[in-house]
């Protein structure tokens, strides 16, 4: 026979069953974005106005590439989870499910496109350096 107290039965159960985990994820990603985005603005801003070759060379370096990838990954996950909360508050039924799936799909699509573009820039820069040698 198991004796569970009321507290033991309630541990880990929020309104949705994962409210605390969601709150901590949103808090931590907000703090991470608060540090990453200003640095990203300066890194991205320094590439504006350059030729295509200069921009490719700029984002082929490790720091701008890693920073751009981190901002994209953390930002899109933060966007998806925040939009999910908003949609859960203001929609219901099948429309809610469809909109949440759409938001998550959009965030994964944007993340994949940015990471693909970064990978292609790194590959193009590496290939151009190999051809020049």
Automatic annotation (TrEMBL):
UniProt entry tagged with the keyword Metal-binding: yes
Cited Pfam families: Sdh_cyt (PF01127)
Where is the protein localized? Answer: Membrane
Query: Which superkingdom is the protein from?
Result: Bacteria
Q: Which cofactor does it need?
A: heme
Gene Ontology cellular component terms for the protein in this record:
membrane
A Gene Ontology BP annotation from the UniProt entry: tricarboxylic acid cycle
Q: Which NCBIfam families match?
A: succ_dehyd_anc
Subunit record text? Part of an enzyme complex containing four subunits: a flavoprotein, an iron-sulfur protein, plus two membrane-anchoring proteins, SdhC and SdhD.
Recorded protein name is Succinate dehydrogenase hydrophobic membrane anchor subunit
């Amino acid at each position: 026979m198991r004796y569970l107290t009321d507290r033991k039965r309630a541990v880990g159960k929020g309104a949705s069953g994962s409210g605390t985990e969601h709150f901590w994820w949103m808090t931590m990603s907000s703090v991470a974005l608060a540090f990453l985005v200003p640095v990203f603005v300066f890194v991205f801003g320094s590439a504006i106005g350059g030729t295509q070759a200069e921009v490719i060379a700029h984002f082929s370096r490790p720091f701008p590439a890693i920073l751009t990838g981190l901002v994209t990954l953390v930002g899109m996950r933060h966007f998806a989870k925040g939009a999910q909360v908003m949609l859960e508050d203001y929609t219901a039924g099948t429309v809610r499910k469809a909109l949440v799936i759409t938001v998550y799909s959009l965030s994964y699509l944007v993340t994949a496109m940015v990471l693909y573009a970064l990978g292609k820039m790194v590959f193009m820069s590496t290939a151009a350096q190999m051809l020049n040698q």
